[in-house]
């Protein structure tokens, strides 16, 4: 058993395995997230393109921004949300009389807020973890990492619900037309 500053005690085996297990978890997470991100961005571009066909007047940015906005530092914290909101609006059927209707966007907003929170929490965790020099600091960083991952899981669940809802809205527009029956 080895003592470190603070009250936490670990044996040598735990200390030697910790970085390797952390690295393995990071690699597995990356291998899961990367294909998911690729598929999501392809879907995002497709629904943006569909929205442009439904109601081109709703959009302030071109279709290419549905991909590019995710890769522009700082702008990626708000531009994709703007595109998603415009796509949501373009995918909402008009009233039977042609009047503009609004579909509640609380799901979209919830997903976006939680996703941004997950991204920020993940970045903060990374910086704290890399700067940790004591076992207690590593434990604190680890707890923040767990919290970041939990927030990311919640964001992923909300993203799935958002994808399903927006896809359903676009399917309705494609099959029933731009005017709601009632």
Automatic annotation (TrEMBL):
Annotated protein name in UniProt = DUF4328 domain-containing protein
- According to the entry, what is the taxonomic lineage of the organism? Bacteria, Bacillati, Actinomycetota, Actinomycetes, Kitasatosporales
Keywords (alphabetical) are: Membrane, Transmembrane, Transmembrane helix
Task: Give the stretches traversing the membrane.
Answer: 21-44, 64-84, 105-125, 137-163
Q: Which organism is it from?
A: Streptomyces polychromogenes
Residues covered by the DUF4328 domain: 11-168
Q: Which residues form a coiled coil?
A: none
| Lineage top rank: taxon | Bacteria
Does the UniProt entry include the keyword Signal?
no
């Amino acid at each position: 058993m080895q003592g470190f500053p603070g009250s936490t005690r670990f044996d040598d085996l735990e200390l030697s395995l910790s970085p390797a297990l952390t690295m393995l978890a990071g690699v597995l997470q990356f291998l899961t997230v990367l294909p998911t991100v690729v598929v999501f961005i392809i879907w995002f571009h497709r629904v943006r393109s569909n929205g442009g066909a439904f109601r081109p007047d709703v959009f302030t940015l071109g279709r290419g921004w549905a991909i590019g906005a995710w890769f522009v530092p700082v702008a990626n914290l708000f531009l994709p949300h703007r595109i998603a909101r415009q796509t949501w609006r373009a995918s909402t059927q008009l009233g039977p009389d042609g009047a503009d209707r609004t579909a509640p966007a609380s799901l979209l907003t919830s997903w976006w807020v939680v996703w941004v929170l997950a991204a920020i929490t993940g970045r903060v965790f990374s910086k704290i973890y890399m700067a940790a020099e004591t076992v207690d600091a590593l434990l604190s960083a680890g707890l923040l990492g767990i919290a970041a991952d939990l927030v990311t899981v919640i964001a992923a669940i909300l993203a799935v619900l958002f994808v399903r809802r927006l896809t359903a809205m676009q399917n309705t527009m494609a099959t029933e037309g731009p005017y709601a029956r009632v």
